[in-house]
Every structure is written in structure tokens, then in C-alpha cells.
Design goal:
This protein is of the alpha+beta class and 154 residues long. Helices cover 27% and strands 32% of the residues. InterPro entries: Acyl_CoA_acyltransferase (IPR016181), GNAT_dom (IPR000182).
């Protein structure tokens, strides 16, 4: 069973190890630690407490919720952990829309976005040479309009 919870600084080393394993370097370690400290990071763990993946969500994308990173340990990929993390982010999302992006070459993430009914919202070239960034959006909830109560004159 996958357990998802907000990351603590005690998770930071595991998060950085998993990221380095997937990325191939430790270049994002400081950024990841800052996301944990800011409360923007959630981890997926197994029954034994071992962290097997993480996701970061913030409001850095035009003041909308945005998932810049969804990373699952290579030995635990294709087991639904990424989907569990995405669904959890949808549940805790505080904005009307949730955005994410991935490289066109990341077929697993592209399929996950499609499976979860995210809508492609555009593509940006020149971030990674020869591998465009594809952006997705999902409407999470409709914001309730404030209902004005009638004012009675006295």
C-alpha cells in the first residue's frame, strides 16, 4: 500500500537520492530541500516507511498550482505510485486549475496525464534541446461564487 504525506526535512536525503538516481546528477538538491522546507513537497512511502517517490506542487505558474516534479524511484515505477501522487495533489490543490509539464520524450508521464484526463495546453521549444516541454492542465473544482445576502433597510 502506498502512503502519501507531506515531506519533512528528515525525508530530504531520500528525496535527493531518488532525484539523483532518475536525473543522473545532484543538480536539484538545493531546490528540492527548499521545496520540502516550504511545505511544497509530498512523499510516497511503503508500509515500511521507505520513501519511493515524491511530488512538488507550488503556485509558481501564473499563480496557479503547478507540479514541476513528479519522481518515482526506478525500482518502483509502473506500480501506480505516480498516479497516487498526482491524485493526492488534485485532492489538496487550492486553485481551480492544476498544471504540470513534461518533456515530449517522457512517454510515461504523457500517458499518465492522458489517463488522468489532463488537457494538453501547449508546448515550449528550446528548454531542452530537441525535446519540447508539453504543458497539461486539469480543472480541479469550480470556485463557488459568493452569494450576496439581501440587505434590509431599517
Amino acid at each position: 500500500m502506498t502512503l502519501i504525506r507531506q515531506a519533512t526535512m528528515q525525508d530530504a536525503n531520500a528525496i535527493c537520492r531518488i532525484d539523483a538516481m532518475v536525473l543522473g546528477n545532484t543538480g536539484r538538491a538545493q531546490e528540492l530541500r527548499e521545496a520540502v522546507a516550504a511545505g511544497h513537497c509530498y512523499v510516497a512511502s511503503l508500509d515500511d516507511g521507505a520513501v519511493v517517490g515524491f511530488v512538488i506542487m507550488n503556485q509558481s505558474f501564473f499563480k496557479q498550482s503547478y507540479i514541476p516534479y513528479l519522481i518515482v524511484h526506478p525500482h518502483h515505477q509502473s506500480k501506480g505510485i505516480g498516479q497516487d501522487l498526482m491524485l493526492h495533489m488534485e485532492a489538496v490543490c487550492t486553485t481551480e486549475k492544476l498544471f504540470t509539464s513534461t518533456n515530449l520524450s517522457n512517454k510515461r508521464m504523457l500517458r499518465l496525464c492522458q489517463r488522468l484526463h489532463y488537457v494538453q495546453s501547449g508546448m515550449i521549444d528550446n528548454l531542452d534541446p530537441g525535446d519540447p516541454e508539453v504543458f497539461y492542465c486539469k480543472k480541479i473544482r469550480k470556485r463557488a461564487k459568493a452569494i450576496a445576502s439581501p440587505v434590509q433597510a431599517i
